[in-house]
Specification:
Number of helices: 8
Mean pLDDT: 82
Order of helices and strands: HEEEEEEEEHEEHHEHEHEHEEHEEE
Strand order of the largest sheet: 7-6-5-14-2-16
CATH architecture of the largest domain: 3-Layer(aba) Sandwich
Largest sheet: 6 strands, antiparallel
Number of domains: 2
Shape: globular
Helix content: 25-40%
Length: 338
């Protein structure tokens, strides 16, 4: 009896300890698993010949993509305002299947274009002409494209949120007035954050008189954010490059890093030509995407892209130079394109 009593006592103590240990440990089924979002990476790519003419009709097999030196497989591919289509490549990189697909609304034709207009006190002299140039650009955009119009001096003014209604955008353009010191980089940060909420192809077009006198944000941070969101930045500066070398350097670097272009247009004719060039560039972009191969790098990832085959000898391409994976998120959240 005594032995049975002690065995029962020991079993009860062990059972109590096991229950206590279980109570102290968190329920793994209820805890969140933290991971880095490495979902679909989108690239907008311009391809031109030696004379600057846009090259059309290229296929996925004409491109190679590397991320931190790791070869990537192109998952989807599209040209111009057409939708992306799923792509299957053989071991030697040739297209073996390219199936038509009815895409979700986010990847239908056209691009979301965010126009950012400098209405600071540096724009007094050519203000009306600048408004006219922007208005003409808005009218010239193809029907599928949605447009948002923002203006800035020290603060950001959202004259028209993203819409397909051109008249609404034009009313926003005409409602602007010149004002305070320019805070371009602050305004660009807010514009990029707004644009990043929308999936699909996007671009930011900046019309600026050059210097930034009031921002708290560094241009390098703006460039990195634009690359991570796959948003090319196009800049039209109304000043001659030699008159403002610092802004010129920033604009050129920012445009090159994000896959956009920078223009220095001191008169209204040059400004109109710059807007026309941007319209053509956006309309001729190839868009391709890939799911990143396993990569331990959780920081900045460098993208290298090149043409292969006959195209490599004749043509040149332009796209963003890298991205930073999204901030670690809880498992179960919907993925977003990088």
């Amino acid at each position: 009896m005594k032995r049975l009593f002690w065995l029962s006592l020991i079993f009860a103590c062990c059972l109590h300890a096991a229950v206590a240990q279980t109570a102290e440990q968190p329920d793994k089924s209820k805890t969140q698993t933290i991971r880095v979002n490495v979902s679909l990476v989108l690239l907008n790519v311009a391809v031109t010949d030696d004379k600057g003419n846009y090259v059309t009709g290229l296929q996925p097999s004409d491109f190679e993509v590397f991320e931190d030196g790791i070869a990537q497989k192109i998952a989807n591919f599209g040209e111009g305002n057409g939708p992306q289509q799923p792509v299957s490549l053989s071991a030697d990189g040739k297209v073996v299947r390219e199936e038509p697909l009815v895409p979700p609304p986010s990847t239908l034709t056209g691009a979301d274009i965010f126009i950012l207009f400098d209405t600071s006190n540096y724009m007094y002299r050519g203000f009306a002409q600048a408004q006219d140039a922007i208005a003409e650009f808005v009218r010239s955009l193809d029907t599928p494209e949605r447009v948002a119009f923002y203006a800035y001096s020290r603060n950001l003014y959202r004259g028209s949120l993203l819409t397909a209604d051109r008249n609404q955008v034009l009313r926003g353009v005409r409602s602007t007035t010149a004002g305070d010191d320019p805070a371009l980089y602050n305004a660009l940060l807010l514009t990029l954050k707004d644009a990043g909420q929308f999936p699909g192809k996007k671009a930011v077009v900046v019309f600026s008189n050059g210097p930034d006198r009031a921002s708290m944000v560094a241009p390098e941070d703006i460039s990195e954010l634009a690359q991570s969101e796959s948003i090319p930045i196009y800049v039209i500066s109304t000043r001659e490059a030699k008159l403002d070398p610092l802004s010129t350097m920033v604009f050129l670097r920012m445009a090159a890093a994000t896959g956009g272009q920078a223009y220095f247009a001191k008169n209204w004719r040059s400004q109109q030509k710059a807007f026309a060039s941007i319209r053509e560039d956006i309309a001729h972009l190839y868009s391709l995407s890939y799911y990143p191969q396993p990569n331990p790098n959780r920081g900045w990832r460098t993208i290298n892209m090149k043409l292969v085959g006959p195209a490599a000898k004749k043509y040149h391409l332009r796209t963003r130079s890298g991205y930073r994976p999204k901030t670690p998120t809880a498992a179960g959240e919907p993925p977003a394109a990088q």
